[in-house]
Structures are given as structure tokens and as C-alpha cells.
Amino acid sequence: SSSQTQTYAQRAAKHPNPSAKALLDTIERKKSNLCVSVDVTKGDEFLNVIDVVGPYVCLIKTHVDIIEDFETSLIEKLQALSAKHDFLIFEDRKFADIGNTVALQYSSGVHKIATWSHITNAHPVPGPSIVTGLASVGKPLGRGLLLLAEMSTKGSLATGTYTEEAVRMARAHSDFVIGFIAQRRMDGVGASAAQSVVDEDFLILTPGVGLDSRGDSMGQQYRTPKEVVTESGCDVIIVGRGIYGKGNGIDIQAVQTQAERYRAAGWAAYLDRIG
Ligand code: 6AU
């Protein structure tokens, strides 16, 4: 059977990449396919939101470069919360440069992403050298990479043959590329009849998820967990503003309520899919 109808536990048991296996195991253990995207700009708000949503998530997604008062101790606190609540960390860096440059951006600078982020992502636009550049840093550490095969935004150029080439690139580097940021399952996409793709198991992490809104004023488009997980076969829902809100100031009780609501919706959609 394809990964579409297998349980997360069945997939975890045979996944060769340590970060993909850990994510699948965490999803099963916590009965959560929810990743919360914590796109806030103050370190204390960042930690407060993560502490509250932590029990309901398999994964926390960060954009560390938007935090105004970033310091190394923030990463230590993030790691302590990861241990306390049992979730993995995904820095949404969207690398997009030549191999040598992305290897430096991944390992070095202020943020040293590879030292703490289990999973990161990259645009396939430079070609396979972006994967080998990042793998030179991340593979020895047991990290995993997601390629952006599609985007959630209106007018995205990541469609058609671009998406197919992204999947082929992943297939050629499946020791480090664990899946895609995409809007649907990629089983067999871009495969020639001669290629055997039956054993591949790419994880599909999907942003652009909302229960109360269909988009924002800057091109974002939202679909429901049912559309994303049951109908399109995706594995993890990524939710930001649907959970932590849009206004100024964070209502921590509301954040907890929304995290529980999205966890339940994402899990129900998965149970519907596997039947
Ligand atoms: O739920 P939102 O709209 O508040 O946040 C969605 C999050 C943001 C985006 O940077 C990210 O998901 N994202 C991505 C990722 C994860 O790579 C790709 C994409 O196509 N759309 C998208 O929104 O942090």
C-alpha cells in the first residue's frame, strides 16, 4: 500500500532518515499532525506561545531571523521546551543559493541553524547543488531537508514541470531530502514508467491552513485540514495566524484553545484518510 493509506507508525518503523522517523514517531505518540508556525518578533512571546501550544504539536516551525531580541540563550530555552513537550524543531529558512553559500548559512552566522533545527527547507531553484551543499552540513548531524515543490500563495510559479523536477531532485537525494512543502501528495509525480517509486516515502508538510479564513491581504491562501489531509493526502498541517492570532498582543488562553482545535481537526482528517 502507498504511504497515503499507511499509518504514521507503520511509516516510522521503516523510514531510513533519523529526523523523518523521529517526526513520524512523535506524530503517532502525541496523536498530532499539527505544526505551529510561531511567526512573532519578541523572544518572550515566542517562548510563551511555544510553551502553551507544545502539548498539542508534533513540530514547532520557526523564522528565527524575525526575532528582534535574538540571543543564543533563546535557542537553549527552545530546546528545553522541545524536551518538556516532546516536539521537533523546523527552522523555515527557505535556502535558495549556491551550495557553498547555503552550507555556510546553515552552519554558521548568528543562528547556527544546523546545530538545533531537526528539519529545514530549501527552494529547488538552484538545482541539485543546493541539496548536496546543505547535506554536507546536515547529513552527519542526522538532519532532514524539505524541498519547496509548491507554494500556498496566489500566482505561485512553483507548478507543473518545476514541481516535477523538485520531486526528481528529492528522489535522487532521498538520504537527506525527507519530503516537501507542498499542497498535495507527490507519490509518483515526475516519475517515468521505468522508475520504481513504490518504496519512496516523502513527507508532505502543508502551509496555508485555516479553519476560519480563506486568505489574507498579502496573497496567502488557506484550506481546511480536511481539504489538506483527507482530500489532498498531506501529512502535517502548518498553522500560524489561525492559532496565535492576527492582532497586537497575544491572548494565551485563545492560543491554547485554537491549538487543541487544530490538533483535533488534523487528527480527525488523518483518521478519515486511512479509513
Ligand atoms: O498560517 P500563516 O499564514 O500565518 O503562516 C504560514 C507559514 C509562514 C510561511 O512562511 C510558511 O508557513 N509558508 C511556507 C513554508 C512553511 O515554507 C511555504 C508556503 O508556500 N506558504 C507558507 O505560508 O511562516
TrEMBL record:
Coiled-coil positions: none
Signal peptide boundaries: none
Task: Give the residues annotated as active site.
Answer: 92, 94, 97
InterPro entries linked to this entry: Aldolase_TIM (IPR013785), OMPdecase (IPR014732), OMPdecase_AS (IPR018089), OMPdeCOase_dom (IPR001754), RibuloseP-bd_barrel (IPR011060)
Pfam family of the protein (one): OMPdecase
Q: In which pathway does it act?
A: Pyrimidine metabolism; UMP biosynthesis via de novo pathway; UMP from orotate: step 2/2
Annotated substrate binding lies at 39, 61, 152, 220, 240-241
Catalytic reaction annotation: orotidine 5'-phosphate + H(+) = UMP + CO2
**GO-annotated molecular function:** orotate phosphoribosyltransferase activity; orotidine-5'-phosphate decarboxylase activity
| UniProt entry keywords in alphabetical sequence | Decarboxylase, Lyase, Pyrimidine biosynthesis
| Superkingdom field | Eukaryota
List each copy of the Orotidine 5'-phosphate decarboxylase domain by range.
Answer: 33-255
The UniProt record lists the EC number as: 4.1.1.23
Query: Which enzyme class?
Result: lyase
Q: GO biological process: what's one of them? A: 'de novo' UMP biosynthetic process
Query: Which protein family is named in the record?
Result: Belongs to the OMP decarboxylase family.
Give the protein name, as stated in the record.
Orotidine 5'-phosphate decarboxylase
Organism source for this protein? Hermanssonia centrifuga
Its ancestry begins with: Eukaryota, Fungi, Dikarya, Basidiomycota, Agaricomycotina
